[in-house]
Amino acid sequence: MIILGCEHTAHTFGIGIVTDKGKILANVKDSYTSKDVGMIPHEIAEHHEKCSERILKEALKSAKVEWKDIDFIAYSAGPGLDPVLWRGYTIVSKWAKENQKKLVGVNHCCSHLSIGKLWNKMKDPVYLYVSGVNTQVIVQESKKGQKKEGKYHVLGETLDIGLGNMLDKFGRILDLGFPAGPRMEQLAKKGKYIELPYIVKGMDVSFSGLLTKAQQLFERTQASKEDLCFSLQETAFAMCAEVAERALAHSGKKELLLVGGVGANKRFCEMLNLMCKERGATFYQVPMDLAGDQGAMIAWEGYLRRDSYGDMEVNPHWRADEV
């Protein structure tokens, strides 16, 4: 079986092609960027429309397959930016109709979890999912003899904004463009620590106060860009590490998997790896090409959920614990 997956929830339009054995045949994408603003939904939708046919052509060529070889199309039904989701859905619906293929809508968040689990050949991890709008600690039900994918449970999450969005918002304040994460990571290497609000409430975290304080210090010229980037990272990452460690303790699990775009940050991975070593657990991550949004994860999640979901249009607020 060969599945084509289409990612189109936010700034990235990606096509991935995988087999039912989990082999990635192609994973091609193009991402919207801007120099001085964040994500503008109608501009992102236009970006996806313009690049969709080219990305599809490149993916089919890379995988060395034709439409006749594809069994069905999986697509991101949500969560995501409403106008962007609908534009992506319109594109995949057209392809499905033209090529007489079944559509399977999947949850974007769960796709990050399942591709990470597949890549690392894991059995039952605690997931730390950290992307633009999402910051969640998640576990999955696992019953002996159960063939279907189990239900997800969110043990903790952000109470306001996601970690990725917080970093991007501060990046705009520093005029770093979008996405700001990679440039902030480089600036942080030259900085020293300044105390910022550390907000953990049980299993949940809050980043808005951290962002506000960092903005105030910058606008009052009381701290340098380098020191603020370093301190913002250290504080936010430590908060996530704390709730992830608590999830490992509560669940009794011995594996932690970091997924989502912020997982590309090397310092974040270093801190989580150290935490896991200190408590006798194992830390896992995914390679750069699978850390951010891409089509391969949608295709694999589509294979796993092929009998659970079909053409469901879009659901912008679809949570992982509703799957």
Please tell me about this protein's structure.
This protein has 323 residues and is an alpha/beta fold. The chain contains 10 helices and 12 strands. It has helices spanning 41-63, 82-99, 108-120, 163-173, 181-188, 208-219, 225-251, 266-278, 288-291, 295-304; strands spanning 2-7, 12-19, 24-31, 72-78, 102-107, 126-130, 135-140, 152-157, 200-201, 204-205, 255-259, 282-284. The protein has a 5-stranded mixed β-sheet, sandwiched between helices. A 5-stranded mixed β-sheet has the order 8-7-6-11-12, with helices on both faces. The protein is globular, with a radius of gyration of 20 Å.
Q: What characteristics describe this protein?
A:
single chain; 323 residues; alpha/beta; five-stranded mixed sheet; globular
